[in-house]
Amino acid sequence: MHRRSAVHSRWRRPLLLLSAGALAAAGLIAPLPAAAATANPVPGDPLTGNGAVSRTLLPYSQLTNPQNPSGPVDDAAFALPAAAAPPRSTFEGTLTLTNPAGSGRFKNIKSCSTGCGKHLPPISLDLVQNGSHLIPTVQGLTITGDTQSGSTYNLIVGPGRAWSENGDTGTAGTFSRASLPIALVDRNQNCVHNGELSFLYNTTSVSNVAYQVTAETCALHQFDMWGQLAATYNAHSVPNAVALENAHAAEVGNRMPTKPLSALATDYPTAGLNLATFGSGITPSAMTSYGVVYNGVNYVAGGTSANKGCQTRYGTYAFCQDMRLPSYSTAKSAFAGLSMARLVQDFGSAVPNLDLKDYVPEMASSGNWNSAQVTFNNAADMATGNFNSQLYESDENGANTTSFLNAEPYGTATTGKMGYALGYAHHAGEQGNTWAYHSVDHFLLAQAETGYLQSQRGPSADLFNLMRDEVYTPLHLNAGTLTTERTDNASAAGTSPTTGRLFAAYGLFWTVDDIAKLATLFQNNGAAGGTQLADRGQMLTAMQRSSTDTGVAAVSADLTGHGDGTAASGGYRYSNGLWAYPTTGQVPGCGLRVPFMSGYGGITIAMMPNGATYYYVSDNNEFGWASTVAELNKLSPMCAPTTTTVTASPAAVTAGQPVTLTASVGAATRSWAATGTVQFQDNGLNLGTPVALDSTGNASYTTNSLGSGPHSITAVYAPDLSNDTGTASSPFRTTLTSSCSTTATTCKVASTAGLKVGDTIGMGSATLTDDTHVITALTPTSITWVGAYQQAGHSSGQAVWLQNTAGGGFAASTSAGVGVTVS
């Protein structure tokens, strides 16, 4: 959970604007290319309209005279009209709004009758222009020095548009028209309030600036804010202007192809898609954006179809592609977990097993953390063993995490964000075994990752800058995404935060294009453009595509009987910042866990095994998307068809001589190896027990017990989670030999042959009372675990099975027979 802080420090600093060159030198943005004589045009330019725009909202007469608007207007007033002509003038210089704290209007929508700032923060922008595109020199999160009463705001300004209309001329002069997307960001928080501003300009002056903020992704508080302000234009040469213009042209050119969501049905007419499935389950007024990514196209719900996205309380937002979306906890996946995969790519496979306390100095004086090894991987899986309660979000919704989220200073081992992060009690032996949802775990992970990075690259190395330069920039994420919330709100007003420590668990800001590219990076196992941006093995683990590590069971249970997810379907899993959702029959006969990113308020990025991604960003605490699994299965099967082959070596033996049987399982439509088990058969009769596939999709079995004569050997492949039951493809199954109570941590079984310490086992009767445990000790006839209590008692004879299953997503298959002759 993320809450708005009720207390903010009050201070003001003079506005300071850094040049693009200074920003690059400071590491705030990626280094700019050398300036060219003229800028490359932005794709889509030049405008071809004749300027004959019929305008009733924000007309020339309003913008050139003082106004106090009575309410917001339709957002179409801020949008580029179809008949827009190329701009008459070029804007280059500084736009400053006059006295934003002294004017404007405000309307409470939710929880803002008191305590919310009612005015824009100070705004002064350096802008350059490339054709019809108006480009801020600083596009990321900007510290404003806002000191108004109530909550204060930082700012994100995105690239806007400039054009000409025939009616923008009169006694005040002849002007071009401009509009920019703006987003107010609650200081020290992740709430985003989206709006626009618009003005007229020529080579020497600007009109008044109309603005309104009428949409948000913020479950905590909501408002409308609008008005019209005087402004000044200081025309001057902006350093590196052409380089900035070229960078914007390149960013637009590198955006993923976008179509309206309705085009998904027309592009795949035989699929029979019901488009109403997408966006269902979410209150329409709470939906900010949603769409489907498939085969390299981002199908985005817009404002002109039945599937409406990009909506405000006053129509369709004028800049849907640049609408700012808070990450909230999707940052746990797309930053904290992904950064560990990048560190492995850079420095090797030992990184996940490093000890947090070796790289976080404050842990040395924390009794909760200095006594046991807690690895980077434990923190990424939220299984540190440090918690007060295992109940789902009990700690997250408690006083300590609330104080952590509201704290602005980084602090010490006992103060500030760090002090609260270290405040949970340690439970010996439960690290790596017991899951407890904690934002603080990923905050601590990022501090440890930073410490490790500095040990490798020097004390000035910064984890976010590493991700910006080595992952986000090569992925061509939006320029406004290349900053993050940091502790202390310490950067100079008018600049993006470069000092302070990363939040990591939240505090980033996406666009729909960013979401599509990040999801595609995960779908492609960390590769983009032919380059491995994140370690493939770590990405396979996060995406539930490797049976060697599927994270931890996110099945919270304690003596109250609380539980979340079922063990029979593999249960919810949590791995490297990614959730995995166990389907419960959405696709009959196809068992799978869908990996997904999740964010506070109602944000989901669900990455299906068939390559389709469904995402939505909303703020009414609604998380309904299970029905989209079956709908997207219509595009291509969630469980990929497989081909199983088997060989025998040697193919002719004498009685008693060993024969090695090897099965290979492949799926042409998957970029990772099949997981599950193979049952070898001799003339239709089982040979031994199922054998788990290795990391390459192969399994072997050696026998010397084949009788004399010819044998037809086949291999029957059973995928993980087939028919939604982890028992179906388990390579080991046994039964309880006595009852196992709700408080038990050791239970008796018929045999533990084939099990080892560290294995995850399921226990029960394939119902909601199933339990999962990680084995910490065993004897030939007993299993012991620590941490999670039973959700229910289990009677003698109930099943116990090995639960080390990956995410499924493959269809069963049987090989053709291969002959073996025994003489």
What does this structure look like?
Keywords: Signal. It comes from Kitasatospora cineracea. The chain is an alpha+beta fold and 823 residues long. Among the domains are: 67-253; 258-322, no CATH class; 330-543, DD-peptidase/beta-lactamase superfamily (Beta-lactamase, 3-Layer(aba) Sandwich); 643-725 and 810-822, Immunoglobulins (Immunoglobulin-like), CATH 2.60.40. Helices cover 15% and strands 26% of the residues. The chain has 13 helices and 44 strands. The strands form nine sheets. Strands 1, 2, 3, 4, 5, 6, 9, 10, 11, 12 and 13 form an eleven-stranded antiparallel sheet that branches. Helix 5 (330-347) packs parallel to helix 9 (439-457) and helix 5 (330-347) runs antiparallel to helix 12 (536-542).
Briefly summarize what is shown.
Among the domains are: 67-253; 258-322, no CATH class; 330-543, DD-peptidase/beta-lactamase superfamily (Beta-lactamase); 643-725 and 810-822, Immunoglobulins (Immunoglobulin-like, Sandwich). Helix content is 15%, strand content 26%.
Salient structural properties:
single chain, 823 residues, Ig-like_fold, TAT_signal, signal, Big_3_5, Ig-like domain-containing protein
How is the topology of this model organized?
Blueprint: H1 20-25, H2 60-63, E1 93-97, E2 105-110, E3 124-130, E4 133-136, E5 153-157, E6 160-163, E7 169-170, E8 173-174, E9 176-186, E10 192-201, E11 209-217, E12 222-229, E13 231-235, H3 241-253, E14 258-260, H4 262-267, E15 287-294, E16 297-300, E17 311-312, E18 315-316, E19 325-326, H5 330-347, H6 376-380, H7 399-406, H8 416-421, H9 439-457, H10 463-472, E20 509-510, H11 512-523, E21 527-528, E22 531-532, H12 536-542, E23 552-553, E24 573-575, E25 578-582, E26 593-599, E27 603-607, E28 613-618, H13 627-633, E29 643-649, E30 652-653, E31 659-666, E32 676-682, E33 685-686, E34 691-692, E35 698-703, E36 709-719, E37 733-735, E38 746-748, E39 760-764, E40 771-779, E41 782-785, E42 799-802, E43 813-814, E44 818-822
Parallel strand pairs: 14-16, 30-44
Antiparallel strand pairs: 1-3, 1-13, 2-12, 3-4, 4-6, 5-9, 6-9, 7-8, 9-10, 10-11, 11-12, 15-16, 15-28, 17-18, 19-20, 21-22, 23-24, 24-25, 25-26, 26-27, 27-28, 29-31, 31-35, 32-33, 32-34, 32-36, 36-43, 36-44, 37-42, 38-41, 39-40, 39-42, 40-41
Helix pairs in contact: 5-9, 5-12
Signal peptide: 1-36
Domain Bacterial Ig-like: 646-731
InterPro entries: Beta-lactam/transpept-like, Big_3_5, Ig-like_fold, TAT_signal
